[in-house]
Every structure is written in C-alpha cells, then in structure tokens.
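Exercise: predict the fold of this chain.
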Amino acid sequence: MPGERDVVVLVGSLRRESLTRKAVHALAGLAPAGLKLEIVEIGELALYNEDLEGASLPASWRAFRDRVRRADAVLFATPEYNRSVPGVLKNAIDVGSRPYGQSAWDKKPAAVISISPGGIGGFGANHHLRQSLVFLNMPAMQQPEAYVGHAATLFADGGGAFEEARGFLTAFMAAFSQWIETVAPR
C-alpha cells in the first residue's frame, strides 16, 4: 500500500501463547489502514557482548539492526518481570543500540504498551522501558498511556472483556499512527 508506515513490533515475551503476543495480534487488527505491523522475533539474538562486534558479529544481530533501521517506527509490547522489562527485550535494545554512535533506534518514533495478568498492567515495566528510550533518542508517544491489566480476561472465551477494551486499543493505535506522522512526517 503506498504511504504505508512500517512498524517493527518487539514482543518482550517468548512464550508462543503469551498474553503480550495475543495483545499484539489484536492491535494489528485494530491498527489504522496506514500502519503495517510486523513482529520481529528477538528470542534468538545472542546476548550482547561487545567482543562480538566486528568480524565475529552474529548474523542475527546484523539482520536485526538492518530491520530496525528500515522501519518507520517501533512498538514495544512488554510483560512485566520483577517490576521491569524481560531480559530478552533489554538484550534486543542493547543489540540495536550498538556499536556506540550507530544505534538503529535513533529518532525512531516509539510507543509502549505493557500487558499483565495483574491489576496494575505492567506499570513498572512500561516506565523502565521509557527510561531506556530517552537515552536511545526515541521519541516515545506520551498519551494515551497503555497499561493493560487483567489481560488474561481479554482473551477468555466469549471475548466480552476484549470488546470492552476494543475502543481504547483502537484509540491507542490511532494515536500512535498520528504520533509517527508528527515525529517523522513523510
């Protein structure tokens, strides 16, 4: 589609049936027509180690960095582990930010959504992630904030809770689309 915006989505949960992954699939279905969301898998990225830069650079790092650089924007979808982001997501952030001065993240519009079966919706992870985005020079959408609590009920049989959340999630994606156009106009 001409004029389509390419959005890389990083899912901070490796479990195939994770609530975070289910939420991302739902968001993709609610996104405005101009956004193309693609989950970029991060589970196979080698742990960041500066010794691997240069001739030993893992092919997965090169492919990941190239994919992020080609994207128009990034959507971070994270569960909360111990009041912070999962290690796999932090590793992907570190891999993309190196070597120093060549960050794939630089100036990419971003949005954060945290997903949790608990009541506070991953608030700690959401805010820890935002701290990293400041350093990475990623303008992060501030409003609406997206903390999805009690997420297990969103995907339970019957879908009543999802229908209640549909309006908010649709508005979140519309705001993200507008944010991308504001920060990185065509």
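Check your answer against the key: The helical segments are 19-30, 59-70, 87-97, 123-135, 160-183.
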